[in-house]
Amino acid sequence: MIKMSSVIELQDLRTYYFVREGLFKTLAVKAVDGVNLKLQQGEILALVGESGCGKTTLGRTTLRLLEPYSGKLLFNGRDITHTNMKDLTWMRKEAQIIFQDPYSSIDPFMNIYQILEEPLIVHKVEDPEKRREIISTALEEVRLTPVEEIIRKYPHMLSGGQRQRVNFARALLLDPVYIVADEPVSMIDASSRVELLTVLRNLQKIHNLSILYITHDISTAKYVSNRLAVMYVGKMVELGRVLNIIDEPLHPYTQGLIASVPDPDPNNRNAFRKVIPGEPPNAIYPPPGCRFHTRCPHAMPICGEKEPKLVEIDERKSVACFLYHKESVESE
Amino acid sequence: MLLQISDLYMSYLTIRGEVRAVDGINLSLESGEALGIVGESGCGKTSLSLGITRLLPENVSTFKGSIVLQGQELMGIPRDRFRREVNWKKISMVFQGAMNSLNPVVKVGPQVAEPLIIHMGMKKEEAKPKVIEIFETVGLPEETYDRYPHELSGGMKQRVVIAMALILNPPLIILDEPTSALDVSIQAQTMNLLKRLKKEEHMSMIFITHDIALSSDISDKMAVMYGGHIVEVGTAEQVILAPKHPYTQKLLASTPMLRSYSEPDFIPGAPPDLVNPPQGCNFHPRCHMAMDVCRREDPPACLLEGGQRVECWLYGDKNE
Fold this sequence. Notes:
heterodimer, A: alpha/beta, Rossmann fold, eight-stranded mixed beta sheet, B: 320 residues, alpha/beta, four-stranded antiparallel beta sheet
């Protein structure tokens, strides 16, 4: 029985990149290495981690811009793990992406109307009046008004925040159910970030969207999302309600990540920050056992031998760490 | 007083007209102090640092004012002499993404030794122990000397670049977004390193960033920049706990906090176009407190009790 309420479901999903080394050797970069996740309808889930942890790969795999190596990927209950690209046209309307860089993700030679009209033409909205209507509604929803003025402008006439709102509007046009927002505000000025995130939250409410919000910035995740998933070198280490995790992070990696982020406070300068020592390992040769054990202040002998499973602690939190459950070993 | 900047102006000539990137700035820094400069992209914070280090782009049309370092006026020094006598020796700089500007085909040790060889006339063998000593200061193992940049991680390369900035023991180091290309865990390590250098080596620095929270991690004194102006400057306590300029207030309110539950705010609109800045105060089109006078005349620099300085008409009467 498939529960229809999850829009995206990942079952032991793995996405590998293959790199050639020398003439005969091929190495696998295990960017996403066995992730289980369900994204409910109407939920914003923040996927947090450092660069190279696999968060962007995971996001793109859920859109089937990348093909999984193994595991299962369900979209609204339909198995699309290995579906042919040509047979996924239906999904291209249902699922959309917002990219990080608002400067390179829209065509500088098209005006805003043309930029927004294109996906409608591609997906065969034939009536020009209808197209105009959809475009104005989308622009109003992302608060780019007056619409008549905006649609005649070219991207260079807009600020970074406004361009990103054009991207938001473009993602909305085809009435999707699922949006991947990959670092949508990291290139936007601090004073405008919250404005954009507010727009994103409102869009979610208006359309009952499911959003995967990918970011390295845990403080914006707190503002925008319902649940938080923390990734480290291809694995999900902690998952739960965002406020619960920030108040009481369980995994030592999450604890370190939160301790690394300052809030504006003049006392910060008087004390050294508690930091995670070392640097993330290479995803080609991840350490055996728990991938974090090489940097973990609480590492035990078992951590270097066995891989901990993501286990539910209570209905709000799951964590993959032997500090909380000794027996739950990841099966190979 | 280590550094005193008075009435500094700097503008660029572009196809669209003159960009007034630094528009009359006054700042000072004591020895051993860290001054944070905070502002959004395009506010002129990087131009200011390029002006102090005289790394002027070709299209600079105006560059005037006074920069006094340890009692010496720097503005009159010709470019060649400035490069020989001030850069690296007196003021060194760590740029955003500087670790990516290391020469990929030269081992990092000799690259760090370069200022010693060029500026101090040392031989390579003489320079090596100095480099290893400075590597130790920034927490790099000795064998890093013989590594190529691609063999090092981002965080280690960042340490190499900081070591290079320290090698001639300059009285002032300017760091422009030194951690913005790094992951948060490496960023925190780098900030701890800077804190240690400040404490143990009494390093004086100007720390430039767009991130007010990060700035509070190191700065004793903070200057908030907007549209080519320093709109507010004071101690970290004054600027963060009792901000006076509406821009600083809104900027702080729009920072999502991890450890408190206030709903963040935002500033509507976008920063000014410095080719055609608005009349009067640069911030008035986005300011919730704007009055008539703000739209007509430039705001005065007001010195408040406790030494905080604000450029804002709200405090205008206190200037008299």
